[in-house]
Amino acid sequence: MIKTYATLGLACCEVDTLSEMLRLGLTGFRLNLSHRTLSDCKKWTDALRTAGAAVGVRPELIIDLRGAELRLGDLTRPLLLRTGDTIRFGKMGLRLLDDDILAALRPGQTILIDDGAMELTVESHDGATAVCRCLRGGTLEGKKSITLPGIDIPRPVVGEADHADLAVARQHGVTAVMQPFVHSRTCLEKVHEALRQHGLDDLTVFAKVEDAEGVATVSDWLDLCDVVTIARGDLGSNLCLYDLPRAQKKIAAACRSADQDFLVVTHLLQSMIHTPVPTRAEVTDIYNACLDGAACLMLTGETAQGQYGVEAVRVLLEVARRGEADR
Questions:
Q1: What is the pLDDT of residue 143?
Q2: 35-81: pLDDT as tens digits
């Protein structure tokens, strides 16, 4: 049976809402820790356990670790960026970039923010401040993802903040971890080592494919995880967007060949963040993922911040049931 997950967030963190989603048949939830610590989310994880008890199920809880992800720093309030605007990062501008990110920027470098929703280009860099031009605007918020196509910034596979979250995972009911930007067996070996250090050997490991290197190497390391995750947000930013469908098909084929479970996530029902019904393309996308053999499907912003989270879960489940029946 296809497993279905939603993402915990402010829009769905109340017991009644969580209970309704679980009652529909949702398998469990993902908690994105790029924005907060697991301890910060105690109210949410307590609500999830209360909801599970009310419905008579034990929902899975996946924590999405930080790993080598690149993120903006904190921003006191959202900033509207329009196409053509100039924005400065660094000493004489917004202190939103870590030192290693700022140092890696060069004139002509593309900066994609929030899974590519916004696009900037670096026009100049004096070593302390990068001046950028907005090519595709939007609302800039703190802690959003950053992609720098063509640039690799080394970071620990499991960082200090990840270890702090793993240390309290048991008391929050965590059942699985999701590791970003997996490229190699070494990466997953370090994840398993971290889990052993915290007595969490039994947790399920989801390994995210988020760039070209991950796509190219997936067959080399997929046996070291439980579920390969086709994470289309960063994957669609790090690849040419038009190559994303081919990459998804390639990963799915590699998993089928190895009899490995895989999950498809990001923009499954993106329109339902603001509307109560999905597009025809979205339901077709979910159905095709099922026919390709997906073992799991996951919603993100649709439930974490969307206005129609319960409806989105209902749609996901209805399409997944039909897709599974037809494959």
A1: 84
A2: 799 999 999 999 999 999 999 999 999 999 988 778 888 888 899 99
CA distance 181 to 223: 16
User: How many CA atoms are closer than 13 Å to the CA of 198, on its beta-carbon side?
Assistant: 21
Domains in the chain: how many in total? 2
Residue 216 within a domain:
yes
> Residue 217: what pLDDT?
97
Could you give phi then psi for residue 67, rounded to 5 degrees?
55, -135
Mark which of 120, 147, 174 sits at the end of a domain.
147
| 317, 6 Cβ separation under 8 angstroms | no
The helix/strand/coil state of 105 is: coil
pTM (predicted TM-score): 0.87
> Any bridge partners for residue 204, and if so which?
176
What is the domain-level CATH number for residue 159? 3.20.20.60
Q: Pairing between strand 86-90 and 129-136?
A: antiparallel
| Residues spanned by the domain of 194 | 3-68+155-326
Compute CA distances 140 → 44, 58, 107, 136, 237, whole Å. 25, 37, 21, 11, 17
